[in-house]
Amino acid sequence: MAQQVTVFFYGLFMDPEALKAKGLRPYRARQAYVECFELRLGARATLVASAEGRVYGTIMALTHAEVDRLYSEPTVAAYRPEPVLAQLTDGTAELALCFNLPAASPEGTDRNPAYVAALQAVGRKMGLPESYVVSIGAA
Q: Fewer CB atoms inside 10 A, N or C side of the chain?
């Protein structure tokens, strides 16, 4: 079996069914959050540093080849990996990769109401805290 890497997903990819629909085999999907970041929405989602922030999502294991294939898609090719410490609901934490847009990326400026609605729906499906889900796109 190929080596796997843990990835923290906070956008539409946090749904393992969405990854399976792309032909990937996500393993061990679990709810998680990362501290000191906030969700920034434009045409797509990204995380930005924020001392008081917390972003919810899921962590899953994928092979390196699957991660490369996922982030080679044109709509997400600008995203770059960064290490994060994902806090799990059982009180443990795991190191994970988190893909974010570079700070100067122009993709983060235009609002996309359809994306906000889809992200809220996925957040509810994944059981994220309702207070967090309703805050998505509020700022």
A: N
pLDDT for the residue numbered 1: 60
Q: Which helix (H) or strand (E) holds 117?
A: helix 113-125
- The pTM (predicted TM-score) of the whole model is 0.91
Extract the tokens encoding 28. 């061990």
How far is CA 99 from each of CA 45, 48, 102, 134, rounded to the nearest angstrom? 10, 11, 10, 23
Buried b (16+ CB within 10 A) or exposed e, 110-129: eeeeebeeebbebbeebebe
Query: What six digits make up the tokens of 67?
Result: 């991660």
pLDDT, residue 139, reads 61
3-state secondary structure of 54: strand
What confidence tier does 12 reach under pLDDT thresholds 50, 70, 90? very high
